[in-house]
Amino acid sequence: MNASEDADIRTPYYGEWVWGMAFPDGSVSVGRMSIARRVSPLAGMTNASAGAAVWCVSKDECPYEREIGLIGTKTTTGKSELFAGMYPDQAYQWARFIGLDADGLVGTEINGQPTLVGTGSWQYYMGSPSTTVGFAMTQRSTNPPVKAVSVGPSPALTSKPEISGANLRALAPSELRERAIAAVNKAF
Length: 188
Known about the structure:
This protein is mainly beta. The protein has 2 helices and 9 strands.
């Protein structure tokens, strides 16, 4: 994780990522992100890349609408956090999901592959209440299946001021994160 934009021109987090969300009611959701394009360092975000994100019902069945997936470093109040997000459209008016990695580092918790595990906030519709979730995502391949993704400018990450590492880690028990890891392992 780096709070300064890296001079390396490669796309950070490039590849196919699979994710799982564990909700407090016991339900889980799974999906994929095809991270294929570096985004400009705006709105407190550095070393970020974006691509297509979809929800899935199984490993090979992802019938739901496509969204924008984003992975990078977010800096708020002088502290950097490893961040993942999903946005319904390029306007980035609201985030369906915002998550912060628990230790701020890409780990290897799932099958020894690059992995993010942490706590997030999920909001199904704009204006609906958000819920705290555990999340896990791991890189399944270094070749993103969807490469030509049109993405707008970097999102304004100020729409959810309650999202900070300290707030999120305090809200979700480690049990939610463990269930998210299990969901990824089971689905993919």
